[in-house]
Amino acid sequence: MNGETRMGWIDRGEGLAIVRQCELAGVARATFYGRQTPREEFEEDLVLCGLIDEEYTRRPFYGSRRMVVYLARQGYVVNRKRVQRLMRLMSLAGMAPGPSTSVTHPGHQVYPYLLRGIEVSRPNQVWSTDITYIRLARGFVYLVAIIDWYSRRVLAWRISNSLDSSFCVDCLEDALSLVGKPDIFNSDQGSQFTSAVFTTILKREGIAISMDGRGRALDNIFVERLWRSVKYEEVYLKDYGTVTELTRGLADYFAFYNGERPHQSLDNRTPNTVYADSLGGGASIPDHVGVRTGQRCSAAIEARGVA
Length: 307
What we know:
2 domains, 13 helices, alpha/beta, 12% strand, Nucleotidyltransferase, domain 5, 307 residues
């Protein structure tokens, strides 16, 4: 039986891993993958991105080498260069110390980490931010959020289909207008947060700028925990197909996260309760952050022509 016939036996929609199908059909994996059309390669990239995203959320210390091993166990034999390309696309990097732990800009100023040894004892003492990748059924977007370290309260968030600085700036402006301002603002050394347009706003408001050390996974641990909660409690369960659906879902989730979800580290209180009580017991706090921000996110993305 010729090779073309055996190649026809392999079905990407089949539950059996491609690696195993190739073995059973007597087809070399390199031959099968080498015949992929651009469309097939794109479709497989989306699957690989989903697998990488879930494993990275579980084990954020995984770099490209370990991801190659993990994907092989899932039935996808891909080389490290492809995994590196996909991780760069998702703005993911293993948290172990090394030359690729942060996507920095060589022309941007990096600020020292100011939180080592500091006791965070009240709301608006320290705010923190980060960006994560959110997969959709046929693509992906990026999510940025700002949280209050003391209460773990999500103060503002935005989504974008690109990694330019504008959606991070919009998120910062939202938080400042809705809540006030912190003493210290902490981020990683990503180019969005070291950009002049972002740091100028912090300087304008008299906010001290703090940035994680390279390769220090625990410097921004509260945002990392937030991403894990968002993905496992919302994104992975819903499998959103469009930006509009995702925006509505995130608006509902962040309202739940702030106002209803008990946090073990907060003695099973909610972020809203801790934030309000610490400001003087019953202090008024905006309860529409998720809805207002979600509406702005949806409008901004739709203006760029993304469904």
